[in-house]
C-alpha cells in the first residue's frame, strides 16, 4: 500500500509549482512511513517521451530526489512505496514501471500474486522482472490498450481492469498511467482499508498516522492548484477542499477536467 500523486497542466511546470509547495511538502513527509523507495515519471518537454527515475531506498529529499523532480513538465506522477510481503525494496520493484513508453504505478495489494500471474500469457510472464503484484497487474492491463478493434484506450483499459476485478473482488486496483499523450487514472478502491497492523510494526500507531490512513485510505481525490494544474492524489495530505473521484471508473485527465469510463459496465462485455 503506497502513496501516489500526479498532475496535468496546460504548460510545462516544475512539480512544486504545479501542485504547490505545501502539498509537495506534505506528500514528501509521508516517506517517513512509506519508506520502501520512491519513483517519478514525467513527460519530457523537449522530446515528448515519458521518462522515469527512482530508488529502492528511502532517500526522499536527497540529491537524487531533487534532480529527478527538477524538470518542468505538462504531466508527472510521483510514488512513495510501502512494500508488501514477498516484494522487498529492490531496483526491479521500483515504481513507476516503464514499458514501451508507458509508465505505471499502483496503490494496493492483489493477492495471491500467483493467481494474477496466471492470468498472463506466456509472453506476459516472460516480461516480469520483479516480484510485485503491481508489475503483474501492469502487464495484465497494458496489453489490452490499443489492441481491441473499435475501442478507445479508456474503454479497452476499463475492460482489462474489469477482468482483474472479477477475479479479485476486494482488491485495491488504483493506478496511474502516463503516456506521451495522456494521463489515465484507475480508481477502483476495493474493500480493504489501511494496513494498520503493518503500520504499527513500523512504529506508527493509529493516533500517529497521517490523515486518511483509515477506511478512506484507498480513496483518490482531485483539486486544481493555484497555477491551474489538475492534481490527483491518494490520502495522507490535507484534502479538506478536494473532490473525491467516483469509484470504479477510468479517468482520462486534462487540465480542464476528466473524461470518465465506468469499469463495472465493462465486466460482462
Give the topology.
Elements: E1 3-13, H1 15-19, H2 21-29, E2 38-43, E3 50-55, H3 63-69, E4 73-80, E5 97-99, E6 102-107, H4 113-117, H5 122-126, H6 133-142, H7 153-167, E7 174-178, E8 183-187, H8 196-201, E9 221-224, E10 230-233, E11 243-244, E12 249-254, E13 257-262
Antiparallel strand pairs: 1-4, 1-10, 2-3, 2-4, 5-6, 6-7, 7-8, 8-12, 9-10, 9-11, 12-13
Q: What does the overall shape look like?
A: globular
> How many beta strands in the DSSP annotation?
13
**Tally of helical segments:** 8
Oligomer: single chain
Strand content: 25-35%
Structure, described:
By secondary structure, the protein is α+β, with helices and mostly antiparallel strands. It has helices at residues 15-19, 21-29, 63-69, 113-117, 122-126, 133-142, 153-167, 196-201, and strands spanning 3-13, 38-43, 50-55, 73-80, 97-99, 102-107, 174-178, 183-187, 221-224, 230-233, 243-244, 249-254, 257-262. Strands 3-2-4-1-10-9-11 form a seven-stranded antiparallel β-sheet. The chain has a six-stranded antiparallel β-sheet with strand order 5-6-7-8-12-13, with helices on one face.
Task: Label this structure with key terms.
269 residues, alpha+beta, 7-stranded antiparallel sheet, 6-stranded antiparallel sheet
Provide a brief overview of the structure.
This protein has about 270 residues and is of the alpha+beta class.
